[in-house]
Amino acid sequence: MDFVKKHPSLPAFIATLLIFTLAVTFLSEAYGTGTMSTSFVKTLGKTLCLALVAISMDLVWGYTGILSLGHFAFFGLGGYMIGMWLMFARTKLIVVESMAAADIPATAMEIKDAVGTQIFGVVGSSDFPLVWMFAHSFWAQIALVVLVPGLLALVFGWLAFRSRVTGVYLSILTQAMTLALSLYLFQNDSGLRGNNGLSGLQNLPGLDAVSQDAVSIWFFWASAFALLVTYLIANFVVSGKFGSVIRGIRDDEARVRFLGYSVEGFKLFVFVLTAIIAGIGGALYYPQAGIINPAEIAPIASIYLAVWVAIGGRGRIYGAVIGAGVVSLVSTYFTGGQAPNINLGFYTIKWVDWWQVLLGLSFVLVTLFAPKGIGGLFDLISGRLSPSRKGAPLGPDQGSLREQEAEK
Amino acid sequence: MIRRILAACLVFLTLALSAQAQDRTIQDVLQEHAEAIVKSSRTTIGPAIEAVANSGQPSAQTVLQKWQNKDMWQWSENGFFYAATVDGSEITLTDFDTGDIVATVAKGDVTQLKPNSGIRAMIGAALVQFQLNDPDAERRREALLAIQRDGEASHLAPLRASIETEDNPDIKALKEVTERLLTISFDKDDARRIAAIEGFAASLSLDARAALNPVLSAKLVYAEDLPETANIKREIKPGSEALSVSDAFALMVSAGAATAQPTLSERKSALTEHIIDGKVGGVPVAELTRQDARDHAYQALASEGLVPAFDPAFSMEAAVKGVRFAEVYDEPSAAVTDAAQKTLHTINRAVGVNQFLDLSLDGLSLASIYFLAAIGLAITFGVMGVINMAHGEFIMMGAYTGYVVQQIIPDYTISILVAIPMAFAVTFAAGVAMERLIIRWLYNRPLETLLATFGVSIALQQIAKNIFGTQARPLTSPGWLDGALVFNDVLAISYIRIAIFVLALIFLGIFLFIMKKTRLGLETRAVTQNPRMAASMGINPDRVNMLTFGLGSGIAGVAGVAIGLYAKVTSEMGTDYIVQSFMTVVVGGVGNIWGTLLGALGIGFLQKGIEWFNPSNTLAAQTYMIIFIIIFIQFRPKGIIALKGRAAGD
């Protein structure tokens, strides 16, 4: 009960998520009236995963003050890890089926070679690279979903934090890491099919009989559940003493260090934890998207992630969820060609062309006029306003909000 | 019958010749060999071609050309040969010597000479000497270059003959080089070939390497029964990089020294063929999912004699063990290959040195591109500390400005001269507008500057896409920037890259001048170090920030014109440079232009150096370079040149 008291948003969030999940289920084609198309269920499921990774971004940026431009790379890595198993297992089933027609049953070696040719033929190879060592095992790849982003974040974070790279330099460094990773994956000899990426991930091995209508709802449930768990974990992390310390690091790192806290350790913990959350989000997202390629990891995706959090309102976890949900759904609406064109007489605004301009300008406007983002609206409703400090900065750090800005 | 007539003609001609021996015409020469010419056989035509070529008649070349092109016809009335032009059924005959039109006759009265391809080649070879001795030097050069491209053994003699009489020193040198190339490839005398090969020592010419490589061509062979005379390059152990075990075994098989074992797939298809009642060799088909079960079934079939025998203990490693394999030159003479090997070694060393220089030039030009892209950022980010993610889009705006100017002003030289200040003006205005509207509200919140400018960046990108479309737009450089400054066959640099290098130097100068020598520079430094103090001294920080940001953006625009000249202009070109530019500034050390210069040089050379290890893969080069930079920043977080004292901030 204490926990709920500490987090008044929790019951509301859980209730909203529950109602949303039930509503989608009852409208879906598989378990309900069928009003909602399967592709839209998938879109919603993907949006939940994006909300998941937005929470991790909010933890690392909104609470700890590290503007990481690499969390979408962790997201993508998670997707690659699960994608390897999906692709391997499904290709193997297909190969075994086609080989069953032969006069002589195939040996394990022949099956493996045929699977290799199927998967890597597109990059002119047929051998399994070393990174596919565990692709045959579902549980091993699930472990890698957690381990690979976690280890990368651990090594990178340790190197970066111990040399005290902070602020915008750290942002640029994480962006460089993301760029390096995506460039590496773009190569054909990276072992992950170059720019072809991994495809056909929406087909679960052994579940050919189950229609995508049902599978999409399953993934939707799984995503909703993962989001709920992440939300609870995130609330737990930011509450209590740990949460105070990381907020302290955000506002004045040097002061927290002088108080005797191991700033690097705290940062590293948050960085690795959020990388793991992002990886899990990716592992749920890409089976719904069906395809993953290195372009998904490009630095711009991570910047978008930061923008969702900024628009939703950083420093509050439901803000990240709202930001990711609103921006990605509105974006789907405009880029999907559903938005009506606006005829100005001399020029017709096609939203497919102009949506990005609108999006870009709205970042600027949100940053300038609504630093609290959409989440700030809840403060207006609850009447929680910042105390009057006669225009002084709200925090001790140069980078913290000034009072006038906060009130906008 | 014809031969009789011809013989009669010949007699008649001989008589005529004796009458006017001193003015022999080409027709006389042709008639002397008329029989061979008409017969048109490869074995007998030689003396006829030679006679024409060596007749010393001015029209000899024309005759050979017409003959080669099947434009020489024989008139049956007198048996003479004429150049002919066919016009419908009428044929106009022209005399070779005088160039006069002799007659216009019907097709039936003349016979076309149709030399076959062999003869045409012989005529071609005879023609070479005319080209090599052509009075026009340019045509001699063309002929020589043609011979260098695809020479033939028959070119050698006329080429050698023409060297002595050559009076143009350039062409004489070219002739000597060509002669050596031909000698290496075609001469029969080894001593001459060796001399020619050694003549190319330390040469950088691609042709020299092209001529030497075939001399050194070698193939892998099974060496146990190699003849004594074989010119062996080296002995090779199977299982090494040059010769895999399976390749070595295949060589043994093709030499008849071993019998091939049925391969895995052959055994499998043999098994498939012998399935009887769901069993193969007594083994149920369902059990054949393991290799040892298959081997067992195959053995059973082999012992019945149904399939070729297979020894399960057989291994290729054992079969090729202790067997000699060698690489053998196609060229039989060891002296020649040794000389070629030695010469190629000196050539490779010289080429290596020049390739290193070439790589350095490449690195330098890449560095100047990075420097150009980063110098604007060195002002906005380095000096002012503003993260401007739209910097790349300012580069793009500059490039598109150049493109638009070129649409209006067709002359490329003038349009570039107009485009540079135009690009500066446009991006300066854009930068000032952005500073006034967005950035000045966010000076206390650098991370949010990043987001807001990123918003501007994607909006600008999409606007450019809407206006100019998604396809790349060309920004054409003026004609005098075409081509390259060629030092030799290896070392060359295109003029555009030189121009970009010069432009980078100019911008370095401008930056230093503004920062160190002008009022604006002084005020900028004052405001960035301590805005409040600067304001107390009567400097208007708002104005200074605005102008400084505008300056940085304007320089980005000019860089855009320069980059657009050598790369295509697209709406996404900015994103290619933004991360690299930030890297350049961060690696170099924020707030110091020399640091940016060092950063650009370091990154440029590093990238080219990594590319050199793996030239086919520029993606890998970029990946490793970024990883290297990340590691570098671990050790020098403040960059190569770190600011000290109060200017360094925290």
TrEMBL record, chain A:
<keyword id="KW-0472">Membrane</keyword>
<keyword id="KW-1133">Transmembrane helix</keyword>
<keyword id="KW-1003">Cell membrane</keyword>
<feature type="transmembrane region" description="Helical">
    <location>
        <begin position="317"/>
        <end position="334"/>
    </location>
</feature>
<keyword id="KW-0812">Transmembrane</keyword>
<protein>
    <submittedName>
        <fullName>Amino acid/amide ABC transporter membrane protein 2, HAAT family</fullName>
    </submittedName>
</protein>
<dbReference type="GO" id="GO:0015658">
    <property type="term" value="F:branched-chain amino acid transmembrane transporter activity"/>
</dbReference>
<feature type="transmembrane region" description="Helical">
    <location>
        <begin position="291"/>
        <end position="310"/>
    </location>
</feature>
<feature type="transmembrane region" description="Helical">
    <location>
        <begin position="217"/>
        <end position="238"/>
    </location>
</feature>
<dbReference type="Pfam" id="PF02653">
    <property type="entry name" value="BPD_transp_2"/>
</dbReference>
<dbReference type="InterPro" id="IPR043428">
    <property type="entry name" value="LivM-like"/>
</dbReference>
<feature type="transmembrane region" description="Helical">
    <location>
        <begin position="69"/>
        <end position="89"/>
    </location>
</feature>
<feature type="transmembrane region" description="Helical">
    <location>
        <begin position="138"/>
        <end position="161"/>
    </location>
</feature>
<feature type="transmembrane region" description="Helical">
    <location>
        <begin position="258"/>
        <end position="285"/>
    </location>
</feature>
<feature type="transmembrane region" description="Helical">
    <location>
        <begin position="12"/>
        <end position="32"/>
    </location>
</feature>
<dbReference type="GO" id="GO:0005886">
    <property type="term" value="C:plasma membrane"/>
</dbReference>
<feature type="transmembrane region" description="Helical">
    <location>
        <begin position="354"/>
        <end position="381"/>
    </location>
</feature>
<dbReference type="InterPro" id="IPR017778">
    <property type="entry name" value="ABC_transptr_urea_perm_UrtC"/>
</dbReference>
<dbReference type="InterPro" id="IPR001851">
    <property type="entry name" value="ABC_transp_permease"/>
</dbReference>
<feature type="transmembrane region" description="Helical">
    <location>
        <begin position="168"/>
        <end position="186"/>
    </location>
</feature>
<feature type="region of interest" description="Disordered">
    <location>
        <begin position="389"/>
        <end position="408"/>
    </location>
</feature>
From TrEMBL, chain B:
<dbReference type="GO" id="GO:0006865">
    <property type="term" value="P:amino acid transport"/>
</dbReference>
<keyword id="KW-1003">Cell membrane</keyword>
<comment type="similarity">
    <text>Belongs to the binding-protein-dependent transport system permease family. LivHM subfamily.</text>
</comment>
<keyword id="KW-1133">Transmembrane helix</keyword>
<keyword id="KW-0029">Amino-acid transport</keyword>
<feature type="signal peptide">
    <location>
        <begin position="1"/>
        <end position="21"/>
    </location>
</feature>
<keyword id="KW-0472">Membrane</keyword>
<keyword id="KW-0813">Transport</keyword>
<dbReference type="GO" id="GO:0005886">
    <property type="term" value="C:plasma membrane"/>
</dbReference>
<feature type="transmembrane region" description="Helical">
    <location>
        <begin position="578"/>
        <end position="606"/>
    </location>
</feature>
<dbReference type="InterPro" id="IPR001851">
    <property type="entry name" value="ABC_transp_permease"/>
</dbReference>
<dbReference type="GO" id="GO:0022857">
    <property type="term" value="F:transmembrane transporter activity"/>
</dbReference>
<dbReference type="InterPro" id="IPR052157">
    <property type="entry name" value="BCAA_transport_permease"/>
</dbReference>
<dbReference type="InterPro" id="IPR017779">
    <property type="entry name" value="ABC_UrtB_bac"/>
</dbReference>
<feature type="transmembrane region" description="Helical">
    <location>
        <begin position="495"/>
        <end position="515"/>
    </location>
</feature>
<keyword id="KW-0732">Signal</keyword>
<feature type="transmembrane region" description="Helical">
    <location>
        <begin position="546"/>
        <end position="566"/>
    </location>
</feature>
<protein>
    <submittedName>
        <fullName>Amino acid/amide ABC transporter membrane protein 1, HAAT family</fullName>
    </submittedName>
</protein>
<feature type="transmembrane region" description="Helical">
    <location>
        <begin position="412"/>
        <end position="434"/>
    </location>
</feature>
<keyword id="KW-0812">Transmembrane</keyword>
<dbReference type="Pfam" id="PF02653">
    <property type="entry name" value="BPD_transp_2"/>
</dbReference>
<feature type="transmembrane region" description="Helical">
    <location>
        <begin position="369"/>
        <end position="391"/>
    </location>
</feature>
